[in-house]
Prior knowledge:
It contains two helices and ten strands. It is an alpha+beta fold. A hairpin with a 2-residue loop joins β8 (117-124) and β9 (127-131). This is S-protein homolog.
Amino acid sequence: MSRVFLIPLVIVLFHLVCATSSEIADKKKTPPGTTVHIISGVPDNPTKLRVNCTYEGADFQERTLNDGQEFSWGHSDNFFVDYMFVCKFDWGTKTRTFPVLSMRTRPILCAHTIYPCDCYWDARADGFYFSNDKKSWKKMYEW
């Protein structure tokens, strides 16, 4: 196949994928892309979990979560724009900050899921666990 036909073919395929993803999202009433879920799996003693997430300098406002409580947000994926969501976690004397989603980590975190993707982060007493199905969890970070 000549290179002249390859570029239009890629453009058409890209538009088909975007249109299909939008139709699926409309049916589910969720934004296309990735949804990040932050879950508190730590006991409320000595203190409750405090989480402060930022995106490109915009602060999501600090949240205090009870054990078992979660908050989430959706992000429409744009494969041509670099993005990074960073969260700072505080629990008693323990503190940890790391990116919960970025353009570079999304393909790894969501490698085995159907689009759109859910990223679950569970803060536990021994560290931070990740899942994209809320069933199988992998420890990713220590406190």
